[in-house]
Amino acid sequence: MKYSFFLGCITPLRYPGIEAATRLVLEKLGIELLDMKGASCCPAPGVFGSFDLWNWLLVASRNLSIAEEQNADVMVVCNGCYATLQEAYHLLEKPERLEAVNKILREIGRNYQRKIGVKHVVEILREKDVWEKILASQTRSLENLKVAVHYGCHFLKPSKIRGHENPEAPRHLDEIVEELGAKSVDYLDKLMCCGAGGGVRAANLDEALSFTLTKVENMKKAGADVLVTPCAFCHFQFDTGQKELMDKGRLKEPIPVLFITQLVGLAMGFSPESLGLHANKIPHNYLGKI
């Protein structure tokens, strides 16, 4: 099994621990990750796609063409990248649109024929044979850990394109947490945005941080030890955002943030250092419980 690993921007530039954890876990599971040389920003579905859909589609198609050359589906670790690349794949179902895109791509020596698609790392982890290997590889108990799951907006919607489950009552991440032995805690406004999406963080940081603060306080009220997300951008907003809230005097007690493959990696016995937890701004003070 192999995938073209689309890193996006946040992971390599701000949170390399996400890449480290993902590579460690998938390598242990026998899954090969191919480097997508020459890949660019996805580009972002909100701040780019909302203003210039055509050029957004062209850039996304170029990225997809790189994976197609490798004869492997794309794997993403960011919900925004997931949205862009999967929705571009969906839009290119129409032959006339695909041909219009390829007319431009041919000018730079590229071509895309929709022979490969896009998967989120969570989808791969939850494949039956992969998940069985994860459970068989678990060496560290998480039974004393209370986890608040944050899905993120683009992971779930538009649901007709994502095709996962009920977007109003998702269970994918909760099931991962619980089957690894931890407790997934329910909390108020669980499906609310992290605050960063749609350009809000760039345009109005205080408003973005208000979203983050609301979610964090709700998680803490539910007794969570740690926050887990499947999105590099949400990870950035919760980790860096909490530090910003503390600097502004708006938050006293933060909650540590884990990417989903970091949680799986801890369960599989990898060290916190190898999973890149030290690169986070919020200390991982729950580790004594596991």
Structural commentary:
The structure is a single chain. The protein is globular. Strand 7, helix 13 (232-247) and strand 8 form a beta-alpha-beta unit. The chain contains 14 helices and eight strands. With 290 residues, it is of the alpha/beta class. It folds into two domains: 2-121, Glutathione S-transferase Yfyf (Class Pi), Chain A, domain 2; 140-289, Rossmann fold. Helices cover 46% and strands 10% of the residues. The relative contact order is 0.15. Helix 2 (16-28) packs across helix 14, helix 3 (53-69) packs across helix 4 and helix 12 packs across helix 13. A four-stranded parallel sheet has the order 2-1-3-4, sandwiched between helices. A four-stranded parallel sheet has the order 6-5-7-8, with helices on both faces. The two termini are 31 Å apart.
Which CATH architecture of the largest domain would you pick? 3-Layer(aba) Sandwich
End-to-end distance: 31 Å
Global shape: globular
Largest sheet data: 4 strands, parallel
Mean pLDDT: 96
What are the secondary-structure elements, in order, as H or E?
A: EHHEHEHHEHHEHHHEHHEHEH
Helix content: 40-55%
Radius of gyration: 19 Å
Strand order of the largest sheet: 2-1-3-4
Assign the CATH topology of the largest domain: Rossmann fold
> What is the highest CATH level, the class of the largest domain?
Alpha Beta
Number of domains: 2
Strand content: 5-15%
Q: How many separate helices?
A: 14
The number of distinct β-strands equals 8
